[in-house]
Every structure is written in C-alpha cells, then in structure tokens.
Please model this.
Amino acid sequence: MAHLKHDTIVSAAADWWVRLREPDAEGKHVEQWLTWVNEDERHLAAFERMNDLAERLGTLDQVSRQSLIKAFAASTAAGRRLGVWWAAAASILVAVLAGGGYVAWMHARPEIATQVYQSGIGQNRDIVLSDGTRVALGAASTLSVRYGKDERDVTLSRGEAFFEVVHDSQHPFAVDAGDVSVRDIGTAFDVRRTDRRVTVAVTQGRVAIADRRANQQGTLEAGAGERVSYDPESSGMSVSSVSPEQVASWRHDRLEFIDEPLNVVVANLNRYTEKPLHIADADLGKLVYTGSIRIDAIDSWITALPDVFPLRVSQQANGVTLSDAQPRVHR
Amino acid sequence: MWQALATGHEGMNTVTLSVHVSDVEALFREHNRALIAFLQCRLHSLSDAQEVAQEAYLRMLTMDHREDIDSLRSYLFRVAGNLAIDKLRKHKVRSDFAAAQSHDEAMDEESPAHHAMAVEHVTGIRHALRELPPKASRAFVMHVIEGRDFASVAQAMKLSERMVRYHVANALAHCRARIDEEEIP
Model:
C-alpha cells in the first residue's frame, strides 16, 4: 500500500466535501464550513477542486463507469454466487459421471449434415435457423450448425455471433467456441471468439458455460446482464456485468471493449476494416483498453491512439502498424 | 445576468424590494462563490448549481417576512439546500423514466477523441484507487461513480455510515492529490 500523504488543506477540503454531501448537513455544518472557507482563501479553491473531480467522475461515459465499478466495487452478490457455483460444479460432475449417460449419449449421436455460415470483412449477417432461432453473425465470422436428433450443436470457429434461441428442452442448444461450451437455458446471448479467448454475454435468460478441455471440468451459470470471459492464459473464467446495449453495440456498428488487451481489440477491429491493424511490438498487445469504437470512424480512433497509449501509428499501403513510441527525452 | 434579474423584480414591486435588492446584492457579492461550491457538492453539476443559486436569490427577493430572519446568509444557504433537494428528486424521476424508456443510453458522446480523453482520465483514477485500501476505493466508487448515497453504501459494505464517509473522504483526497501531481508536474 502506498504511503498516503496529502497536505492538510486537501484533507480538510475532502472532509468538508463529504460532510456537505447530504441534506442533514443543513444549518450547523454549513455555518461551520463557511467559517472554514473564510479562514484562508486557499480553502474554497481546494473545495472547488474536490467538486471538479467528483463531477468529472460522476459524469463519465457508460463504459468507463462500468469498468471502474467492475474493478473496485463489483457486487459481492455475484462473487458469492460464483463461489457457490464452482463448489456445486464438483458435485454435479460426480453425479454426471456416476450416471454415465452423458458420455454415452455424446458418442451415440449419428452424423448429420453440417451447414456452414460465413461472413466477410465488415459485413454482419442475419440468419434464421430451421427451428426459428435467430443468429446475428458478426463480420469475418464462421459458424457451423449441426442439428442432430437430440441436440442442436453450433460451433463458432472465429468471430462473433448473437443468438436468440427458441427454447426446446428436448433438444438442448449448445455453442462451442474453442475451449468453451455454452449451453442455453432459454436465452439470448452473445459469443465472441478471438483466437482462443472467448467472451459470453447474456442479455436474457441463463446459460451454462463449460470448459471443454478434458482435464478442466466445471460449469458456470451466467444470467442476464452477466459477461463471462475465458482467457486461455489464466485458464480461468471471470464474471463481470454488461448492459444489453453493450452486448448489442456491434450490431449497431460500434465495437465496445471493457478491460481488454489491445491485441484482442485489434483482432476484432480487423474483422471490420479492409486496412488491417498490425501490432509490431508484442508488449503493446498487452495494454488494456476500455472504450467504444465506431466502425465508420476506425481511422480517427487510430489517430487518437497515441494520445492514450505509448505507441506510434504508421500507415502503410496495405494496413496500419502500431509500434512502440520512441523513448521520450525529458528536458 | 444578476443585474437583469434584480431590475426585473424592482419594476414589479419597487417599494418593498428596494431594501431587499441591496441586501441580496451584498449576499451575492460576498457569498456567491461559496454558494455555488456548496450547491455543486450537492448536485454533482456546476450548471445545475448555477441554476439553483439563481433560483435561490430569486426566492430571497420575493420572500415576505424578512424581519423574522436573523441571518440572511444562513437563510440563503437553507433555501438553496432545499432547492437542491427538489432538483435531485426531479433528476431521479427523470433518469428512472429515461432508463425505463431508452435502450440507447450509452450511445451518446462516442467520438474517438471523447473516448481517448475518458480513457486517459480513467487510467489516472484507476492508478490512484489501486493505491488505496480496498474498502476506501470501493466506498468511493460506489458513492461518487455509481451515485449511491452513504446509507446504501454502508448497507452494501456492512459498515457504519461514519466509516463510509471516512473512507470516501480519504479516497477523494488521495485521488485529487494524485491527479494534481499528474496535471501539474
């Protein structure tokens, strides 16, 4: 923990700010505060600086707000539920293995014709599947659909898709994306796959999310307003909150990112631009980005990047390269 | 702006207001900056603070029993405080309504430049918050960014309101000091 030192005026101004925040500070507090204000001309100036910071923070854009709330004030309710789920997962697993039915059923499935849907760079596609399930397929994405006798099986091999599933308990709907499998429990949800990294965002109902790798067993349930991110490097899933607007953003020509590494941001942007971005220095890819990018304004977003990150943008005929900024010389 | 307001009322009721106007003008000269600061603290918005202050002066000009008031300054701050409460109540109604109506709440202000600024700003705050004890940063984010009142933060964190205020004040002082270091190197 850093050593916290500020001068006494700053501390006093912050104390007064907190004391004046609420209506019961009426009367006596205000009088005392005015006395303090009149003691020294620096006092009111310091107080105004508190107001300024608080107002700026109180009016942040939605995405920045969410990311700070997530980082510092994540609801304990979600955390507790997650803990319970991981604990419960073990017992569910025992039950499944004891039954043996799940595994047998997986292998007994007959081969069925697979329908493959693809989209080009910069093109979103709307698809209606044979059962009425609606899929919005993001740009540069590939989805294969195989409806078997017992199960509706969908694989997202790259890109992003939003599903509004027609529920049918006799025929579970499952989306596989890399190491992650998402099982619908009557739902609308979004799955995005960036190489091996997968995020699942739920706007309605619930889904069960499982790690498909043989040695990693466990199921996590996510409900409306929750986003689960799977990161192969940390081999874990993390849960955060997300609004329906954020989930829908890409279908309205805007890509939103919350605390995501720049290489993931770039890979997803590249699904929407003919002039792909390329990260020349690997360390840049790890920089964390939060913000939204309009698909029709990618160029101006790129131009603004050096203001935010220590990097250099160079335009080439066939794309854009991001590289480390020159070491700055301070004088 | 102030002058126009005062004359407007003088025209309406010259005899009784002539005394008032000079008193209220004196209040404005001596205390306006503090009044705005007080209201901005309550309202989280400088423009709302200016608007409410204006309304408070207007109330001062049109009040009837001014002989009953021992301190005009206290009265001004009390009137302004009550108007601020009304304002917050209206805001709440409006934002609840907007939340129920709108699906595009996050759609405004999305130019890359706006975001670049926001991201830079957020990065500074993030660093500052990380240096704090978790309870302090949590209480601060819940109150200042999420907009929850002290009672609701206290309930969520299972702390007394006094402790919540203590944490928020510490976090605010720390963030302010850290950002000042960045902005004034």
